[in-house]
Amino acid sequence: MTDPKRTQKENRHPSPHLPKHSLDVSTAERDKIVEALLISESRLSDILNIVHEAIISVDDNQTIILFNSGAEAIFGYSADEVVGKPLDILMPAAFANKHRQHVANFGAAPERSRLMGGRQTIMGRRKDGSTFPAEASISKLESPHRLFTVVLRDITNRQQAQREREYLIEQLRALDDATRAITAELSLKQVLQTIANTAQSLMKVEIAALGVHDEDEYFSRFVTAGIEPEIAETLEASAYGRKLLGPLFYRGRPVIINDIPSVIGVTVPPADIPPIHSLLGVPISAKGKLIGALYLADKRNGMPFSSTDQRILERLAVHAAIAIKNAEAYEQTQRLAILEERERFAQDLHDGIIQSIYAVGLMLDQAKADIPPEYAVARQQIDLTLNSLASVIEDIRTYIFDLRPQAIKDDGLVNRLMGLISEVRANTNIPIDADIEPDVCEHISSEQATHLFHICHEALSNAVRHAHPSHISVRLTRANGVVKLKVSDDGIGFVMPSTVKPGHRGLANMRSRAFQVGARMEIQSIPNKGTHVTVTMKGRRGS
């Protein structure tokens, strides 16, 4: 018979000798749980490490307990270096207390997540001590212990891109204003100066320069903003200037040099030329042809030139090319109108005034013939009047010569010079010897030819009007790649002034034209022994 007390006791205290298979089941389930947790943790770790943002977890004491690979990349620390350290090491000291209080306030707030910093950018500190702007959000988990997790991204590149966009928008607005200012001008000289001034103001640089060349790549015009014209001429003519400006001017490609001495091998510029540390230059082209170049030197804020600066200057160069061509077309139209008016005036003088004076002279000759010989005084007075009329006709012919240098229609420098010499002979009766090599035009550019023609015309005009010569000679020759023009007369000569005064416009014009084509002009004159004007220049490249 079964004892009930024993049965109750056994029911209350089961025998420890349970079947073995029940213990094995409990262990297996536990291993599965552990394995699942490990897998879950591994997957979480993989997820955390593939994101580029920094993910950082801290406990309630703001001690770092999680630091993913994104955080390692951004801050420069390894996880082993920061886990267990206070969060303060990841931020500038000036922000540490404020940030610690922010996290504490968030812990006491009911919300579970928020953006950090609000409207203000928060700052992070890398292992090397450098700081960077960041954007971050924070969340919290209360069970079983309070845990804060921050997701942070470095926004340095974003802010830099934003600044560049804002800078570009500002520059494009300024470029639009600059374009309006450039296209408002019609005088070529004023257009070029406006372009240089606009480039200096637009790009905020110390110096801006604009070179325009002829078809043979010589500077025909060179204007600057930021330095005096005399210094600009020295810069252009110096070896230092040629090293700076030449590569862009002849190759027609943009150039950025932010360390000039190391590039061109010259550390000290010539006297009176300010040192230049950085240079940005872009070509100016019209209809696929290089017509000039625009240069900038030294940004006022000391920063190097960038590709963004280059793009803006290239846009300005496009508008500059249009403005230059428009101004050239306008000036050409104006010149043609003036030439037509001068031609008409010269024709009126020749066909109207001179013929009328001739008619008066014929009438006086007839009157003289009708006067009896015994009235010698009257006949003598008529002779004096006829001589005066002959002088007036000679003066008018000189004026016609001055009015009509451009009326010669033949193409080519040689034909134009021969036509000019023929006009002087016809209008002044002064003998002129001409020695002009027929093929000299093949070795000079059209720009050089034009300036040589005007220099020759000015020299002949000065000789006719002031020197009272009995003979003039004109020589145009070429030897060893050098073209030489020499205009000589045997007139009264003059004493060369030490400086060209405002009244000597002819001398100033000749010197200006010689400079524009890189020529050298020399004037030799001795009272009562004549004058010699000599211009020498290098011929076309490769000639």
Shape: rod-shaped
What class would the helix/strand composition place it in?
A: alpha+beta
Provide the gyration radius in Å: 45 Å
Helices, by number, come to 15
In percent, how much strand structure appears in the residues? 15-25%
Average pLDDT taken over every residue: 78
Helix-residue proportion: 40-55%
End-to-end gap: 140 Å
Model regions low in confidence, pLDDT < 50 over at least 5 residues: 1-23, 406-410
Biggest sheet record: 6 strands, antiparallel
What's the total number of strands?
16
Concise synopsis of the structure shown:
This protein is α+β, with helices and mostly antiparallel strands and 543 residues long. 52% of the residues lie in helices and 20% in strands. The strands form 3 sheets. Strands 1, 2, 3, 4, 5 and 6 form a 6-stranded antiparallel beta sheet that branches. Strands 8-7-11-10-9 form a 5-stranded antiparallel beta sheet, with helices on both faces.
Q: Can you put this structure into words, describing what you see?
A:
There is one protein chain. By secondary structure, the chain is of the alpha+beta class. The chain is built from 15 helices and 16 strands. The strands form 3 sheets. Strands 1, 2, 3, 4, 5 and 6 form a 6-stranded antiparallel β-sheet that branches. A 5-stranded antiparallel β-sheet has the order 8-7-11-10-9, with helices on both faces. Strands 12-13-14-16-15 form a 5-stranded mixed β-sheet, covered by helices on one side. Helix 6 runs parallel beside helix 11. The N terminus is likely disordered.
